[in-house]
Fold:
Amino acid sequence: MSALSTLPTVVTMGDPAGIGGDITLMCWSNRQHLNLKPFFVLDDPDRLAALALQLGLKIDVEIIATPAEAVTVFDRALPVMPLSKPLQSTSTQARQASADMVIESLDRSIDFAMQGDVAALVTNPIHKGNLYAAGFQHPGHTEYLAARAAGISGDNVQPVMMLACKEIRVVPITIHTSLRQALDDLSTDLIVQTADICIQALQQEFGLMTPRLAFAGLNPHAGEGGNMGREEIEIIQPAIDVLRARGIHCLGPLSADTMFHSEARQSYDVALCMYHDQALIPIKTIDFDNGVNVTLGLPFIRTSPDHGTAFSLAGTGKASYNSMAAALKMAADMATSKSFTND
Structure:
């Protein structure tokens, strides 16, 4: 086995006015019960120490200089690697002032992942509107991670967003774009390309050597033979034919209103959906608290809790840490699977 699964996971700060700090602290506080593997945070250690007190958590924060130190520190304290300067305030009014630190935490985490110093990267929620003033010009984490990874490696990086929980995995073919634009962007080539990235990830990082793919139709009743739209006939079915010719197990195009019930879900390992909400509505309905956002197609493992910053819950102790715990555990499991498949 390679060393990947023995390395710590790096966790980003996220928006300091959001619940990222809360759920990270709660996960470390419950690390033994949750059976979490070592992780460290790129954050302001004083901020986290003060937040722990505010939440009534007895947590020691220990500063580390290298990712490797996190493994030995983790059992006794929360390992924190400081940012280049302290955070001046976590108030709502200071969100834009902290934007550069949010990006610094993200950038340094990506660097560690690209250098092979960490097993995986777990990102805390960001508020994109607060980052644009600091030069953030991407629709979301997914696109930013891909652009920075491509800039470092020089390779073409095509990110694929997957949402996963115990009951289901879903992938939107088109991601952060309007529904009108998604209809224009959808193509046979894009579907095949997305499916290829999913297949590789399911094999290498989830241990599914013969993955089963299900494809949602775009239109009501999957077009009903062309009477309610021809995208299933002209775009989706040709992509399925290409994949089947290569021996890939494919179902579809399926009517999206019937493919997500419990019995139907037993017939596939991942559902590929044509647009954002077609994928996210079912998983958030099935298991809102434990969903994990996974970015496939990157040269490193990245997961994230499947929720936003929840500013109103920050510092109250009322935020659920379930999705963050699931993201940490899934990242560690993916690293273990990748270690075995890469041997």
The longest strand covers residues 249-254. The domain at 1-156+299-343 is CATH 3.40.718.10 (Isopropylmalate Dehydrogenase). The mean pLDDT is 92. Residues 322-342 form the longest helix (21 residues).
